[in-house]
């Protein structure tokens, strides 16, 4: 089977719940400043024309059929509302988890789902994860950081522990970039910002020892893990020569074989390098469905790497089938 682990859904009930909050307006204004007016002018119409595929399961399935995808792992469009207070955060994760579950229930043999947790309130993350799993979801989607907290923050230890115990899948997908207005032209907020955020978040998990303490954590990094896998040699060098970079037990590159990465890197040679570094068993097909920065034909993008047949079929779906316990 062909399994796409990077696909999104828009949940109108959730959008209605956060609309009208001043903090929501402030978050949108910040995002507009970070991306710039030209990007905003392009993104708005692009998203609107894709709303049917983001909300209607029938339209989604037709698009999947057109590109030969059998199963999608569906996650909310990454706007995490980490500005929300505890009461609203509960509403956000409950609507996200039940909304994704309802969407996937329209085609349970073809759709699997991920929910949300409030990283801005670490003491609630385990409860939100449990709620997602109770809805029948495979795990949750998280961003690269929350306001004032990196993923290396000790406050997240109970969350990592419970995710490891339950076998929940964690999908690391950044939202925005903290380089702010430096990236507000030429869509740099996405083309440079997203790979940067992935690299920073994964480095926090590696160097802080999170992956030493939780070796069975099932974490998928979107966008091929950003810049980190192809530049991991610099991290290894720092680990060898600098005592302040010795937060992890082994060279950083060794931890890439414990993580999972989607295949969405937009370059066959980069994909081959990711496979060399992480292993063919750690790369999963990903399309970022249905956005313009994704792959309209993810299988064609995978074929362009000219991989050996066992690697091709592992990435096409066998790895994800094992990870998601598909039959």
Descriptive notes:
It is a single chain. This protein is α/β, with parallel strands linked by helices and 327 residues long. Helix content is 47%, strand content 12%. The chain has 15 helices and ten strands. It has an eight-stranded parallel β-sheet. Helix 1 packs antiparallel against helix 6. Residues 3-326 form the Amidohydrolase-related domain. It comes from Streptomyces capitiformicae. Keywords: Lyase.
Summarize the structure.
The chain has helices spanning 12-18, 22-35, 37-49, 51-55, 57-66, 86-105, 125-134, 157-166, 188-191, 193-207, 210-213, 232-241, 268-278, 298-303, 309-323, and strands at residues 3-9, 71-76, 111-116, 139-142, 145-146, 149-150, 169-172, 218-221, 260-262, 283-284. It is α/β, with parallel strands linked by helices and 327 residues long.
Which descriptors apply to this entry?
327 residues, TIM Barrel, eight-stranded parallel β-sheet, two-stranded antiparallel sheet, 15 helices, 47% helix, carboxy-lyase activity, Amidohydro-rel
């Amino acid at each position: 089977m062909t399994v796409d682990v990077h696909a999104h859904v828009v949940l109108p009930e959730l959008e209605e719940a956060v609309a009208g909050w001043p903090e929501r307006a402030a978050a949108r204004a910040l995002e507009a400043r970070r991306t710039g007016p030209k990007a905003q002018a392009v993104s708005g119409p692009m998203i609107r024309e894709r709303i049917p595929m983001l909300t209607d399961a029938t339209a989604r399935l037709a698009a999947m059929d057109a590109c030969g995808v059998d199963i999608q792992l569906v996650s909310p469009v990454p706007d995490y509302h980490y500005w929300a207070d505890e009461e609203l955060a509960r509403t956000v994760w409950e609507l996200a988890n039940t909304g994704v579950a309802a969407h996937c229930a329209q085609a349970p043999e073809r759709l699997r789902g991920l929910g949300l947790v409030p990283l801005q309130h670490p003491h609630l993350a385990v409860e939100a994860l449990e709620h997602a799993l109770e809805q029948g979801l495979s795990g949750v989607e998280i961003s690269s950081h929350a306001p004032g907290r990196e993923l290396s923050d000790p406050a997240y230890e109970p969350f990592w522990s419970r995710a490891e115990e339950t076998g929940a899948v964690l999908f690391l997908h950044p939202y925005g970039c903290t380089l702010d207005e430096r990236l507000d032209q030429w869509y740099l907020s996405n083309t440079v910002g997203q790979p940067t955020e992935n690299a920073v978040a994964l480095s926090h998990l590696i160097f802080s020892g999170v992956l030493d303490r939780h070796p069975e954590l099932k974490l998928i990094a979107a966008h091929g893990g950003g810049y980190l896998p192809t530049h991991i040699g610099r991290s290894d060098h720092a680990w060898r020569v600098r005592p302040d970079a010795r937060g992890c037990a082994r060279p950083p590159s060794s931890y890439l074989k414990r993580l999972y990465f989607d295949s969405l890197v937009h370059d066959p040679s980069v994909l081959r390098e990711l496979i060399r570094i992480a292993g063919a068993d750690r790369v999963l097909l990903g399309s970022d469905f249905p956005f313009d920065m994704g792959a309209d034909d993810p299988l064609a993008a995978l074929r362009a790497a000219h991989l050996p047949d066992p690697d091709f079929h592992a990435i096409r779906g066998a790895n994800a089938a094992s990870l998601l316990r598909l039959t």
